[in-house]
Structures are given as structure tokens and as C-alpha cells.
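Worked example 2:
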Amino acid sequence: MPHAIEVPAETVSKWQEIVDMLAEVMCVPSALIMRVRPPEIEVFVSSRSPGNPYVAAECARLDTGLYCETVMKTRAPLQVPDALRAPEWAANPDIAVGMISYMGVPIHWPDGESFGTICVLDRKHSAYNDMFLRLLTLCRDILEADLAMLMTLSRQLEQREAKIQRLVDADIIGIFLWEVETQVIVEANDAFLRIVGYERADLRARTLRWTQLTPPEWLERDLRERLPILKRTGRLQPFEKEYLRKDGSRVPVLMGVARIEDGGHEAVAFMLDLTERKAAEAEARDNERRYREVQAALAHANRVTTMGQLAASIGHEMKQPIGACATNAEAGLRWLNAPTPDLDEARAAFERIRRDARRGTEILDHIRSLFRKAPLDMAALQINDAIREVISLTRAEAMKHGVAMQAVLAPDLPAVHGDRVQVQQAVLNLVVNAIEAMRAMPDGARRLTVSTAWDGTTETTGAVHITVRDSGPGIAPAQRERLFEPFATTKSTGMGMGLSICNAIAQAHGGTLCLCEPGQDDAGGGAAFRLTLPARRDQPWPAACGQGSV
């Protein structure tokens, strides 16, 4: 059965030039390319030469004694110098139009299937020489090369169409065809209909438009932005939107759209149902929220526990301003009750009372903030000020355990972006851990240093380091790997949450918490934890930031 592959117009134009050239070179009225279409044979291309009686698209029945029919049956060239002198051609229909001489060769598809013939015909006796036969054969070879290319392209197209059809039939994604001007959906696969909840009968009625499936808040952008881009470029970048199902519910989808051909009237849309992904994302967000709530609750419990451990230290810290207030009150009363009241001295005593009362209020506010369970309050934070408050709360605890505590705070540090309570909690945990770690150390060998430093690695990035170093026994190598994991502890009575919470606080601030490697800081044993927080870029940086000094 002859192939039904269509020959494109540009190839037909090329073939037209070939037959025109043959007619001119051989001085014949007719040069033809014939294509067999059983039960007929068609004049596929006819030369535009004077006196040519054959017209393109003209057909004749087979089994009528045509020259070309013999060529196709024998699959060999045929030369007829004068049909009037050969009785076997007496019934040939070509003689009726005066064509008594003929030369033709068969044309085949690459698989051997017959396409037709290429031939020349004349009204007079003509014994076509070998040169003309070679020329005709060369032209035939050009035609067969074109047919080979067409068959290759056709097979590739069939393979692509088969892949597309498998994709459509697989129902993995929704696919629909729609008219660009009317937005009417003209065809769709079952996956699309299932996603939007419509039936194939709705599709056949040609009343289903993607515009009616689009919620108003999405439709405005589709018509204003996306549709003009599609008409101009022929395709759209993948985008997310929502469609309305037939029952009124909504379905989130990922869309890809392209015109079927440049300037074509139809477009194809590919649609992936995102319902499960969106549900998974919502669940992940909910899990993250619950995790943050649990983390906040653990951090709050850790602060309360730590503050309980520091009760004596806090009491000592509060005792100072309260005692000072009482002393200054007695002094003020004595100056007022004197035979000659000294108002200046009394006023000075009352000013000291106000100062000490304010100091006591600040301590209480700070303690209350550590006990309060509140969300993150990110703001510009001066690290040195925050650390001084932590040291004041822990100084008495350190003295009780014979720990010599000192602060080495770098001047003029830029602010960091952080929550004051959480950063102080991290430092507080590290300080309390250090004090407890040195309990077994001999008297006079318990030293704790809290230091800050600036690290301006480049002109555009910088960080503030907070290092808490003790002179205790240090961290065993086997414990270093799991040091920041929840419930990992180096203490027999510890819960293993302190360092984990400190690490979580550091990460929430875009920073890091690490155990300094031996030799990275000052020698002398013990353990050193470094909390690193990025500096705010909108705050003044030290002049040395370009050199990356610490």
C-alpha cells in the first residue's frame, strides 16, 4: 500500500523546477512526476512548458495501458521511441493526447514502496539517448533523497506523537486544547476532567472555557499579562494558579501553556494537580510551627530552671539596690531631722534612692523578661550590654563556687539583629555550664572568661564572636560529635537540653555555636564555646572590618 505521507509545498516547488528543467533541456512538451494513488495514478507535478497537455492533480485509472503503469510494474526504466509503431501501445490513453514517445524511471520510497515515476513525453518520434536517461535517473535520485528525508521526519513525528499520546493517555497530568481567541476548551484528557470535576459531555457541548474555571483574582492577571504574552511569544513560563471545580471548590495547579504552532488558533495547556503538595506544605508548616512552640516551651523551661539555680545570685543582686535605698533613706531622714536641716544633703540622699530604685526595677524587669514566655522580638542588640547583665546575674553564683570570673569585652562592637532574651539565655546557659563544669577543679584553678570580639571577614560581611571559656576538664573527644544534639549531656544530672537550645537560638539568629578546637584560642585546657552572630549592616562597623581582625 503506497505511503500517505504528504510532500510539503517547498519540496513540490523544488520538484517543479526539476521538471521544468527537464522539459527545457530535452526539448519536450511534457515532463512529469507521477504519484500512484490506487486505483488511480495522479499527475503530481507537471512542467510549465508550451504544449503540455497534462495538468497537475489530473488522475487516470490504472490498468489502462499507461506508460507509467508499465514502469511501476517492472520497476525498471522504459523508453518508447514511437508508440504508433508498436502495437502493444495501441490502447495507451497517452496516444489520445498525441504523446507517442516516452522515457520514464520508477520512484520508490526508502522501504521499496512505489511512489510513482518521473518521465518525459513528446508528440514526435524520439529515441532518447543515454545522456538523457542518466539525467532523468539523476533527477529521480534527488527525488528519492527527498522522500527518504520525508519518511525519516514522518517517523520521528509519529514517534513524538506516540509519546505525546502516551502522556495524554497516562492521565499523569491534565492536558487540554483550547481556542486562543474564544478560550473554549475543545479537547481534554481524562486527567483534566477528573481534576476539575467535569464530564466529557460538558466538553462536547463546547461551552467549557478556562476563563469560567478561573477565580476572579486569578483571571485578571491571566487576561492582562499571560494571554498577551502567549499571543506574542507562543508560550508561557510555568506558573501556579487555582481552578474552580464544578462543585465550586478550588484546586491548586501548576500550568504550562504553548501555542500548537506559530500564529495558530489553538493552544495546549498542561496542568499538574498540586493539592497533595500544598497539603504536604501546609502540614510541614504546621509541624514547623509546633516544633517552634515546643522549642520555645523548652527554652522557657530551661530559663526558669537556670534562674532557679541562680536564685541566690539574683537575691544578692537585688539585695544591693534595696540595701542602698534603705541606707540612703536613713541618711536623708537624719539630715531632715537635724536641728538645722541640710536640704542639699537630703536631696542628694533621695537622688541616690531614686537611682538605686531604678537599678532594682531594671533587674526585676530583666528577670521578668527571662521568665516571660514571649515570641521572638528581633531588634538591634548591643552584645556587650546584654552580656554585662548576664554577668551581674551570675557573679554571686560564680563566687559561691570559687570561680574567678572576668569579662573581656571588645569596645565599639556593631549591633547584631537579635532577640535580647534569647541571646542572653544562650550566654547564660554557657556560663552556668562552665561554672558547673569546674566543680571538681581545685581551689584557685577555677577561671571563667566571657569575651567578645569583632570579625570583619570582608567589607560586606561581619560577625560578633562571644566566647565563654572555662578551666575545667574539657570535653572528651567521644562526646564532641553529639554535643549539640537534644538529650546529649556530659553531666550525670543534666537533661541534655542546654546546649541544644543554645544551638537552636544561634541558628534562629543566622549564626553558629561551636566548640573551639584545642589551640584555636588561648592554651590552658578547659572548654571554650563560641557563639557567632552576624552584625547588622545598617550599623557602623569598626574601622578594622576590612582586615578581618578579631
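The CA atoms of residues 296 and 374 lie 8 Å apart. The mean pLDDT is 83.
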